[in-house]
């Protein structure tokens, strides 16, 4: 098990290196000058040159690249070019909020999506199936900035159950739970829509297999056939989708963070991009890439748990 | 013995007051402010260039002098850290006498002349200030004694007090704090203002606490929570839900009307107005032909744009300098809306079937919407704008590389004509030159008037020269003024600023020691 984890982490190193190089190149290809962002629109070329010299952006690209790789290799992410705040401090301040939101959305997505998918598969082409498919289509089509505003109008303004500003006190677990609920519902419903559709398809495929017919012929109770034989064999695509979606959620829940006024990794990434904060973007991408590697690793380990044949290979 | 008793009583009272002040602060209310921003940038006041940074540094810092709270009239500048000043006969040497007993935040002690000298030198240095160019005329600054500062000028400037006021590079910082904290000063600044920064939570808020030892008296508000809420809809909902006391508003009539209907809410619309101008690059086609520039100027229908934006939040631009700035003149021969004339000029310039112009423009919603209205107006005259919409930072870089023959630019500056004319229309400020600022039109026809106005000490002559400069630049159609958009904030009616808000150079309401939540 440990060997498997180490092998996977080692295999991720070239990916990490490629991502670092790509990020370094892309942020510098995009037009826009961090010196102008820092100095504002009245900046003179002299002042801009002074800032570029201080930031090191006046150095040749290869020198900046070597310095960046060297720093990344030692785990030194440096400080933001624009705010001068240490990148790790910035990320660690918002990461708990991102983890809360991702975990809560995942729970909501799974709790709604899997039973709904199974139910739809068991009632194929009947009213329940049609309703589940329609609702999941609606969930996929409704952008979070629309569903989020409706949720706020109803639950925050009308019933006053939740605040509009959802930036929780990290030292207060109840406050964290209270403030993550509404944004997690907005995100989780979209995730549930995905999972419903994938679960339905996987279950339909699984339930038409010979071993299901055999189990039923042997008199295995229907509930057991569905939940143990059917679901277990349909789980690989579901776990894949959940893993992929969690990876997306970590960095891409920016719209939810904006609508619900929550701090988060997505918001930091977009802010850094708008401000051409090269060092911040680079640091964030390394951290984001690492998180994706971890999520993929967990997904791979789960494959082994679900299907022992995967572990053997 | 009696003397000793008096002294002991005085000490006891002082001790009680010292203990009572923090206790009273703890009970004082928190002001919750919603700002349209992702995060605060640099809180070193000499690098505070964005609206979000400018608003908050004004609560933490003072200048030697200040605009009277609620006013942006340079004639109403009054003493702040300096209690009085005098000038030499030639106007080139200024001596400022500092107020005694002014305390910096925390344990950074009393303000002295050394802090003032350090601050002005820092503000005048390109490596430590974004506003260094404004201080070009200052030759030397020196501390005469701990409470006296002398400033010597190379040449006259229209208003030295304007440079040393509570705006841009005029803020005074603690020398010890800057030297101790180095680059960290940008996120843990120390000033003398009514509020001190407690902490910044990235992407969330800046928390400020009242400065109990503030020299004008302890603030009545205990804390300020300055919250970064980029989504307009969410910020409005939070304000409506009473989670905010003060909300950054939109320069949009519909927003103002809707917000005014909320119970116990006051909408403040105030100066300075941002003047939007279409700057035409006179050095390259098609605008190197004055007939095409004139055609475009006649195709613009300013009253229509102002009506579209809303009468409460906007007004027509009348010159290449915003209204109300010292030196502004409306008597300048500005071309008026005349579609027939525009079409005739275009035909005369060899474009009887119209002309298409490729323009780079920002994706910022407010600026893009205005540009789309202009696009429609110009289309009626046969001028088609092919808008290349790019992200905002890209827009700022590309317009400085002469990649767009027409540049829509909206800005407010210190309210005297010199700054606006110099930055936008002086030959020294032409983009892509070593001294560039924001001259996108490449015009330099009024350089003599702008320079002469800066140096003269005769106010009437100065006004005449600025008026002449505006007439020349408008005759050359270097730019076409559009509208001026005012600042808008909404507040709960129990928030009393302690002054009448007519203007604020920090682009947001000043929160002073007199501001209270009733």
Automatic annotation (TrEMBL), chain A:
It is a multi-pass membrane protein. This is ABC transporter permease. Keywords: Cell membrane, Membrane, Transmembrane, Transmembrane helix, Transport. Belongs to the binding-protein-dependent transport system permease family. The keyword Transcription does not apply. Residues 95-303 form the ABC transmembrane type-1 domain. It is found in: Cell membrane. The chain crosses the membrane at residues 9-30, 101-122, 134-157, 177-196, 238-260, 280-306. It comes from Plastoroseomonas hellenica. InterPro entries: BPD_transp_1_N, MetI-like, MetI-like_sf. Pfam families: BPD_transp_1, BPD_transp_1_N.
Automatic annotation (TrEMBL), chain B:
It comes from the Bacteria. Transmembrane segments: none annotated. SUPFAM superfamilies: Periplasmic binding protein-like II. Gene3D superfamilies: Dipeptide-binding Protein, Domain 3, Periplasmic binding protein-like II. It is found in: Periplasm. Its main location: periplasm. Residues 1-26 form the signal peptide. Keywords: Signal. Residues 76-428 form the Solute-binding protein family domain. Pfam families: SBP_bac_5. Belongs to the bacterial solute-binding protein 5 family. PANTHER family: PERIPLASMIC BINDING COMPONENT OF ABC TRANSPORTER (PTHR30290). This is Polyamine ABC transporter substrate-binding protein.
């Amino acid at each position: 098990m440990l060997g498997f984890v180490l092998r996977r982490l080692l295999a991720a190193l070239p990916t990490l290196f490629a991502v670092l190089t790509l990020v370094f190149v892309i942020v510098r290809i995009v037009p826009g000058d961090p010196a102008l962002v820092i100095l504002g629109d009245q900046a003179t070329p002299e002042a801009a040159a002074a800032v570029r010299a201080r930031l090191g952006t006046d150095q040749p690209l290869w020198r900046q690249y070597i310095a960046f790789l060297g720093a990344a290799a030692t785990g030194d992410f440096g400080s933001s070019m624009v705010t001068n705040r240490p990148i790790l401090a910035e990320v660690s301040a918002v990461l708990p909020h991102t983890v809360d939101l991702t975990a809560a959305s995942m729970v909501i997505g799974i709790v709604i999506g899997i039973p709904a998918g199974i139910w739809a598969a068991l009632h194929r082409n009947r009213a329940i199936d049609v309703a589940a498919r329609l609702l999941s289509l609606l969930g996929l089509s409704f952008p979070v900035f629309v569903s989020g505003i409706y949720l706020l109008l109803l639950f925050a303004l009308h019933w006053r159950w939740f605040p509009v500003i959802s930036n929780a006190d990290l030292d207060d677990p109840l406050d964290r739970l209270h403030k993550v609920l509404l944004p997690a519902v907005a995100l989780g419903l979209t995730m549930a829509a995905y999972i419903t559709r994938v679960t339905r398809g996987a279950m339909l495929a699984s339930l038409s297999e010979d071993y299901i017919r055999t189990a039923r012929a042997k008199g295995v109770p229907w509930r057991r056939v569905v939940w143990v034989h059917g679901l277990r064999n349909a789980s690989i695509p579901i776990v894949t989708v959940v893993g992929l979606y969690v990876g997306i959620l970590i960095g891409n829940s920016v719209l939810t963070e904006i609508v619900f006024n929550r701090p988060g990794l997505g918001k930091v990434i977009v802010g850094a991009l708008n401000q051409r904060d090269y060092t911040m973007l680079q640091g964030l991408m390394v951290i984001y890439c690492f998180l994706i590697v971890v999520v993929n690793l967990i997904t791979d380990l789960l494959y082994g748990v679900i299907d022992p044949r995967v572990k053997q290979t | 013995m009696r003397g000793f008793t008096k002294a002991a009583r005085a000490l006891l009272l002082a001790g009680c007051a010292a203990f009572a002040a923090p206790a009273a602060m703890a009970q004082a209310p928190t002001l919750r402010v919603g700002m349209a921003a992702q995060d605060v940038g640099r809180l070193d006041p000499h690098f505070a260039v964005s609206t979000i940074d400018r608003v908050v540094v004004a609560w933490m810092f003072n200048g030697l002098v200040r605009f009277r709270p609620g006013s942006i009239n340079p004639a109403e500048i009054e003493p702040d850290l300096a209690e009085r000043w005098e000038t030499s006969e030639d106007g080139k040497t200024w001596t400022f006498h500092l107020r005694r007993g002014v305390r910096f935040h925390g344990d950074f002690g009393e303000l002295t002349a050394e802090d003032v000298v350090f601050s002005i030198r820092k503000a005048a240095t390109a490596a430590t200030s974004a506003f260094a160019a404004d201080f070009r005329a200052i030759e030397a600054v020196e501390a005469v004694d701990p409470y006296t500062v002398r400033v010597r000028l190379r040449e006259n400037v229209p208003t030295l007090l304007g440079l040393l006021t509570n705006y841009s590079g005029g803020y005074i910082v603690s020398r010890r704090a800057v030297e101790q904290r180095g680059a960290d000063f940008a996120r843990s600044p120390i000033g003398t203002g009514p509020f001190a920064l407690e902490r910044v939570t990235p992407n969330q808020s800046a928390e400020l606490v009242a400065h109990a030892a503030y020299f004008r008296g302890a603030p009545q508000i205990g804390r300020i929570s300055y919250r970064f809420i980029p989504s307009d809809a969410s910020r409005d909902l939070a304000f409506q839900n009473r989670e905010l006391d003060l909300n950054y508003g939109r320069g949009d009539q519909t927003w103002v009307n809707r917000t005014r209907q909320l119970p116990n809410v006051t909408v403040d619309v105030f100066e300075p107005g941002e003047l939007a101008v279409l700057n035409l690059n006179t050095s390259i086609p098609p605008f190197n032909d004055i007939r095409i520039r004139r055609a475009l100027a006649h195709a613009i229908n300013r009253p229509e744009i102002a009506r579209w934006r809303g009468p409460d939040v906007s007004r027509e631009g009348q010159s290449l300098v915003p209204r109300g700035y010292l030196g502004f003149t409306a008597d300048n021969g500005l071309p008026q809306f005349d579609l027939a004339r525009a079409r005739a000029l275009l035909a005369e310039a060899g474009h009887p079937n119209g002309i298409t112009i490729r323009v780079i423009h920002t994706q910022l919603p407010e600026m893009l919407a205005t540009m789309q209205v202009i696009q429609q107006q110009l289309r009626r005259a046969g001028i088609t704008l092919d808008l290349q919409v790019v992200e905002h930072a890209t827009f700022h870089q590309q317009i400085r590389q002469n990649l767009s023959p027409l540049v829509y630019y909206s800005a407010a500056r210190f309210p005297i004509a010199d700054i606006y004319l110099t930055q936008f229309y002086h030959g020294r400020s032409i983009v892509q030159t070593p001294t560039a600022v924001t001259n996108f039109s490449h015009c330099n026809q009024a350089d003599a008037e702008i320079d002469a106005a800066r140096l003269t000490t005769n106010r009437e002559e100065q006004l005449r020269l600025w008026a002449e400069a505006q007439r020349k630049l408008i005759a050359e159609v270097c730019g076409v003024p559009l509208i001026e958009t005012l600042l808008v904030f909404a507040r709960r009616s129990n928030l009393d600023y302690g002054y009448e808000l007519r203007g604020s150079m920090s682009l947001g309401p000043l929160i002073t020691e007199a501001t209270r939540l009733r």
